[in-house]
Amino acid sequence: MFDPVAVLQDLVRLDTTNPPGNEAAAVSMLQGIIETAGVEMTVLSRDPERPNLIARIPGRGEAPALLMQGHVDVVTTADQAWAHDPFGGEIIDGFLWGRGTLDMKGAVVMMVHAFVRLALSDSPPAGDVVLAVLSDEENSGYFGAKYLVENHPEHFADVKYCIGEFGGFPMPIGGTRFYPIQVAERLSVRFELAITAEGGHGSLPRRGAAMARLGKTLTALERKRMPVHISAATRLMVEGMVEHTTGITQRALRLLLNERTADAAFRLLPGQLGVLEPVFRNTVSPTIVRGGKKHNVVPAEIRLTLDGRMVPSSNPEEMAAELRRIVGPDVDVGYAVDGKLGPREPDMGLFPLLADVVKRRDPDGVPIPFLMPAATDGRWFAELGIQPYGFTPLLLPDGFAFQELAHAADERIPVAALEPGADMMFDMLNEYRGQ
Ligand SMILES: [Zn+2]
């Protein structure tokens, strides 16, 4: 078997910043590794520089196929101050540094390791195991998962569950090491607000111009929150946490289970529960302002773009109405949905196996279902009726905050976590029975 650490170092050194991505070298490097196990493979691409690899290990035909999917593109490092070269693949103080080590080249290497190990073993899995190494996750999957699902769905026709990011590593709350495992994700809804008022000559100041109303709109968005919605995945998550906490943490978690008292819980334990808050409501973040072309002309219209994220129990119309209540009737609200609404209730069939795999390595750890605040490629596979799970298991040292390092400066992974992570993925493949 290959050394996952050395392979991850090589993979990090291939700059796959998306855009433009240029994932071809990374995909072909992994293809070379998988080839050594004599596995059937297909490369499919909308653009040859941005290929996707699909490999399949035939099973015994006793269970539906299981898909592992991971992306090799990474987000930009522009304007970030890194202590070490983000594409150097250096090992320093027990960490492998670099862009993508957490999101998600490290996980892809673990997947490939488990996959090759399974292919080389004497016992075929219960069902076919499919591995998809993908381009373009960080920019909507147009060249990656979305392209495959829309143009080559036959490769996934027999798949029931897929495994991808995000989850399987510790998130400590109230002294307990929880392991969130993604079973649902929020949908991305892009809002365009048009703020209009009379414009004119810059030498004649006017009150209530579009620029001033933009200020009011942004202030309202800063001050007000949309109402709490507890979706099925969130309820499962909190119920899983209540059982394993005590005292004030447990009391606060119980308050979270009720839409009327959830806000009080966040006020009670703002530091600890703050990390969970985004999955309890629809949220918007203002990201782009367009307006004003000339320094001496007061603009008549300003456009404001909001990155909106919607919980699975809501719908875009309801979310738009919630937003209108915050920004007021004078602002025109338009929106576009990226992807489709997933099922309101996740299929939890695979969860016990994933939880078991983690608990064997960390008996004090508590795996919980998790609603992912952001979108992943899982949403595209969900369109084929596949239940996505976020499970890239890592035993991380206390104080190591995965969420704060992914997409950020100094992204790095503990070297010691890679091999056990690959072993846990192998256990999952080996013990999968269709569940
Ligand atoms: Zn990712």
- Write out the CATH superfamily name of the largest domain: Zn peptidases
- Low-confidence spans: none
> From the 3D coordinates, which CATH architecture of the largest domain would you assign?
3-Layer(aba) Sandwich
* Helical run tally: 14
Strand order of the largest sheet: 1-2-6-3-7-17
Kindly state the mean pLDDT as a whole number? Answer: 95
Bound molecules: zinc ion
Q: Class by helix and strand content?
A: alpha+beta
The CATH first-level class of the largest domain comes to Alpha Beta
What does this structure look like?
The chain is an alpha+beta fold and 435 residues long. It folds into 2 domains: 4-166 and 376-431, Aminopeptidase, CATH 3.40.630; 187-230 and 270-338, Alpha-Beta Plaits, CATH 3.30.70. The chain is built from 14 helices and 18 strands. Helix 7 packs antiparallel against helix 8 (262-268) and helix 11 packs across helix 14 (415-431). The longest helix has 17 residues, at 415-431. The chain starts with a helix and ends with a helix. Residues 71, 103-104, 137, 165 line the site of zinc ion.
